[in-house]
Amino acid sequence: MNLVILGAQWGDEGKGKVVALLSENYEVVVRYQGGSNAGHTVVINGEKFILHLLPTGILHPHTVGVIAQGMVVDLELLVKEIKDIESKGLRVRDRLFISDRAHLVFPYHKILDSLLERKGKIGTTLRGIGPAYMLKYARKGIRVCDLWDKDRFYSLVKDNLEFVEELCKKVYCEDFELKIEEVVDRSLENFEEVKDCVIDTSQYLLEKREGILFEGAQGTLLDVDIGTYPYVTSSNSSALGLSAGTGLPPKFFSNAKFYGVSKAYATRVGEGPFPTELKDSTGELLRERGGEYGSTTGRPRRCGWLDLVALKHAVRLNGLDGIILTKLDVLDAFDEIKVCVAYQLEDRIIENFPASLTLLEKVKPVYKSFEGWKESTYGVVDRREIPKKAWDYINFIQEYVGVPVVMLSTSPEKDKYIWLKEESYEGANIG
């Protein structure tokens, strides 16, 4: 059976650990959207790995990693990431496939990213991801396969550099000092390091058929189409991105399981609406207990109570079969724990997640309160050790969103989790 793991919030839900754990039983793990703006942190035997481009499953010696066509790839960072992992004794390049159709990120994308961010603050990682997708859809992108033809590659880079230089000088009144020879030569040097990994990954996956885990980056609420637009990422970070990002037909996923990863509370990085955000000492306590600082940027994350309206939106649009709940232990210290069950807009109650940014910025969360359990759940691996009051909280979540909580993650360590059988959801009484 194939498995799809998606972020069910605004990213940073703990997908890295989940994929590292579950991919142990899979032959192939696929990344299919986003780029180095992703940051998946995994702790194995006390050693921390932070992956930005490589599929997290590559940390298993037997697993093949696939960078599919929907990603935008910064070759400089990819080569560095590969060498960092190989320096720890784990071979990578003989287990890695890179799509020949994937688009590339270059230094001029990062220059453009910083200029665009200055004009309209979104809160990007400044890794050049948005501009890479922008030029892709403007039909000015450069793909991995273009590196095989050096003359064509030179011509494409030259055209893009002239375009970005004109923007810098005539629109933003900024100097532009990037030289074509530097970009081309460095790119070709990096390509030499990974060219043996380049294949038609769609064909490879079609032939493989089974034993594949698809690893989403970012989260559903950052999806460019169904997220909190325009404060979103530049790709389909929900299940909508699967077919286009992998090059596989929709029927390929008809028998797959779809699980969404969600924290037991909510966080967000960057700008954009966040109805349950806590700008007080409670929010600070969530941030400190949860270590809520971006693995890609180091930025402190905005924190708040779990938003079940938003989570149900993610469940519906992804067709999720279950929720994997992470960081339950962060809530151990609270006397009272709240979840958002609706939004209030003036004299109206809204139970669906609105598309309008104007509405989302005006709504007030309607909360249901739970008494805190005030016991440690950190590192617990036996469901019998989860306090009754914590089960009340978990049960309410799954009843509200309509799918079971199938797993609890209780610490960053890969082996600290509790797997809950889906059948136990019957009657919504797994405590």
UniProtKB/TrEMBL annotation:
Catalytic residues of the enzyme: 12 (proton acceptor), 40 (proton donor), 136
Pfam families: Adenylsucc_synt
UniProt remark on cofactor binding: Binds 1 Mg(2+) ion per subunit.
Localization per Swiss-Prot or TrEMBL: Cytoplasm
Annotated positions binding Mg(2+): 12, 39
SUPFAM superfamilies documented for this protein: P-loop containing nucleoside triphosphate hydrolases (SSF52540)
Pathway: Purine metabolism; AMP biosynthesis via de novo pathway; AMP from IMP: step 1/2
SMART domains per the UniProt record, alphabetical: Adenylsucc_synt
Enzyme Commission code: 6.3.4.4
Function: Plays an important role in the de novo pathway of purine nucleotide biosynthesis. Catalyzes the first committed step in the biosynthesis of AMP from IMP.
Protein's recorded name: Adenylosuccinate synthetase
Organism: Thermocrinis ruber
